[in-house]
Write a structure and sequence with these properties.
The structure is a single chain. The protein starts with 12 loop residues before the first helix and ends in a 6-residue tail after the last helix. It has 9 helices and no strands. By secondary structure, the protein is an all-alpha fold. The chain has helices at residues 13-25, 31-44, 48-56, 61-73, 77-87, 92-107, 110-116, 124-135, 141-164. α2 runs antiparallel to α9.
Length: 170
């Protein structure tokens, strides 16, 4: 969903922490990357407060992106925009732009592509605005489905970025 649950496929906080600890035990990922990944997973599973505690402690563009995503889903659109201003131009935005462009093209959503990807660049503020509009009375079910799919792509890009680092995103 664009906002927090409930959804059937949500895993418990305890189960997620246990699985992540098992995974991280077998990696050499720096602890900050582990926490960024933990935050993404917790957000996906609608554990808003624990995810918020994590991203609040990471004062980097990466942490700010997660913070903006969290508040967009809350929904607290003004706060989301604040955090996306702190992100600046993130290296992951180019990959997100590429994947969202491909998705929107395949869906024939040229108007939404123009809105979210001016000059082919990902615009997180336009996505916040689109989510805000979709949540309002003027939003359609079709629009919400499309935006949810874009948000899922965003989560995938973040997972890849935090797991592999930006070198694999080029």
């Amino acid at each position: 969903e664009l906002g927090p649950g409930p959804r059937a496929e949500i895993r418990s906080l305890a189960e997620l922490h246990q699985n992540l600890e098992r995974l991280f035990h077998h990696t050499t990922l720096p602890s900050v990357r582990q926490e960024l990944l933990r935050c993404v997973v917790l957000l996906w599973h609608d554990h808003h407060e624990p995810a918020h505690e994590i991203c609040q402690q990471i004062e980097t563009p990466d942490g700010s992106w997660l913070h903006g995503l969290l508040h967009r889903r809350e929904p607290d659109y003004g706060n989301a925009r604040y955090w996306f201003r702190r992100v600046g131009v993130h290296p992951g935005f180019s990959v997100l732009a590429e994947k969202v462009t491909a998705f929107l093209t395949s869906q024939g959503e040229h108007k939404l592509a123009t809105q979210l990807l001016p000059r082919g660049q990902w615009d997180p503020f336009a996505f916040v605005a689109a989510c805000e509009q979709a949540a309002g009375r003027s939003g359609t079910a079709t629009q919400r489905v499309c935006l949810r799919q874009i948000q899922a792509v965003e989560f995938e890009v973040l997972l890849e970025y935090f797991w592999n680092g930006c070198a694999t995103l080029d």
